[in-house]
Write a structure and sequence with these properties.
The chain is of the alpha/beta class. 31% of the residues lie in helices and 21% in strands.
């Protein structure tokens, strides 16, 4: 059994729900074969989110961590390639904090790459009949903050841990009054199961094109 920790976020920016946490809970309730899954909901707060993540890692002792967040406006499941060392808030977090051009880890590397097999994960989600792609930006909000915090923890303290970040679209109930793409939570949960299973069994990523021209 491979121990996998999945994380989602609490609602933010006036939303009543966050599909990342809804889907993570559903995925953990019916984990893939060979996976011992656990889950934690992170606060959408700079600093505190990474502290909660660290505590969950210490408790669950996972071999793989898949952090998940909402990316409203994206049409598909996006597996993130890189986390950057900057907080630059366009909107406040749920505590009201709005850092601008602040390093997540002062003196830390400018960026970290995911240690998940990102292209194999995308291929697995597509093979399950769901839309997915590689993303080359996790933004500069709390999602990127958590992704960088996780990557820094792996790089400096937990070299045997592998982890990364996945963004998911709005849930349908979030877009009834606006023209935005969405995916049902059960479909997102199915994608997360595929990603967890692929990350658990795959050490070397597949070599296929997954870049972007802009």
């Amino acid at each position: 059994m491979t121990r996998v920790l999945l994380t989602g976020f609490q609602p933010f920016d006036g939303e009543a729900t966050n599909p990342s946490w809804q889907a993570v809970r559903a995925a953990v309730a019916e984990p893939p074969a060979g996976i011992e899954a656990s889950a934690v909901e992170l606060p959408c707060v700079y600093g505190a989110s990474v502290a909660v993540l660290r505590a969950a890692i210490e408790e669950a002792r996972p071999e793989v961590v898949v952090c998940v967040g909402q990316a409203g406006g994206r049409p598909d499941i996006t597996v993130e390639r890189v986390a950057i060392n900057v907080d630059d808030a366009r909107i406040p977090d749920t505590s009201g904090a709005e850092p601008v051009d602040e390093a997540i880890v002062p003196g830390g590397p400018a960026a970290y790459f995911s240690t998940l097999p990102i292209k194999a994960c995308v291929a697995a989600v597509r093979a399950a009949g769901l839309p997915a792609s590689v993303s080359n930006t996790a933004g500069t909000f709390v999602c990127n903050h958590v992704f960088y915090g996780l990557a820094h923890l792996i790089a400096t303290e937990l070299p045997d841990l592998r982890g990364g970040f996945v963004h998911v679209p709005y849930a349908p109930e979030q877009v009834t009054d606006r023209a935005q793409p969405s995916l049902p939570v059960p479909a997102v949960a199915r994608a997360l199961r595929e990603i967890a299973a692929t990350a658990a069994r795959t050490r070397t990523d597949i070599r296929v094109a997954g870049g972007a021209t802009h």
